[in-house]
Amino acid sequence: MLKIVYFLLLALVILIFYTGCGNDESSDDQPSISANSEVNLIGTWNLISYKGNTLPFIAYEIGTKKVNFTSEKMIFNDNGTFTNEQTTAIQDYEDKPMVTTFKGTYTIVNKDTLTTQLTEIIYTIPDEIKEFYKSVGIDIDKETGEGQIDKESYEPNITTFDLSDDILTVFVPVKDGTGKENLETYIYKKVKNQ
Q: Band of the pLDDT at 194, cuts 50, 70, 90?
């Protein structure tokens, strides 16, 4: 059970990255793409490193099975919306990946600051994977939930980033068990020919 909690904490870290920057009602009507025209994040970005780990990497273990974080794709659209898709695969079930999709809106505040508002999380879990989790005593449907996110339940968050050519480095503030804030580093590479 602790191992699934680790995975859910990883998803929570991503969720913190994508939660919004307060209750600015105007952002719901007209998402702002950029307050700084020099910064252009529009396009598809593939995660190449998380906290120094290249993909794929072992996210956690359930019993004797390893769960690999295999890919993450971030799409920034020109209308101020984003989609983030994360894929994990359980050892011996690599052909049955579990996909978590985050959707929302974003605003580029300045050349190195991004805010986001999460609007939805969708879990795509193959039946065979649900059965595997059930076999080890985990009700994955209950653990993950699905669907619309209550935007009011998230605290404001501002994420900083560095954009250099086709590499996007994102620094996500995360509190550890003692309450100390650390920055977790995500490195994305832009997909060419878009």
A: low
Q: Can you tell me the distance from the alpha carbon of 139 to that of 131, in angstroms, rounded to the nearest whole number?
A: 9
Q: Can you read off the two tokens belonging to residue 81? A: 């919306």
Q: Which of 25-34, 116-125, 146-155 has the highest mean pLDDT?
A: 116-125
Instruction: Evaluate if pTM is beyond 0.70.
Output: yes
> What residues make up the domain containing 113?
2-190
Task: With CA atoms as reference, report the closest residue to 103 among 56, 140, 151, 144.
Answer: 151
The whole-number pLDDT of residue 75 equals 96
Residues 6+ apart with CB under 8 A from 120: 101, 102, 103, 104, 147, 148, 149
d(CA 25, CA 5): 33
- Total tally of structural domains belonging to the chain: 1
Question: Which CATH number belongs to the domain containing residue 153 in this structure?
Answer: 2.40.128
Task: Residue 121: name the closest of 14, 5, 1 by CA.
Answer: 14
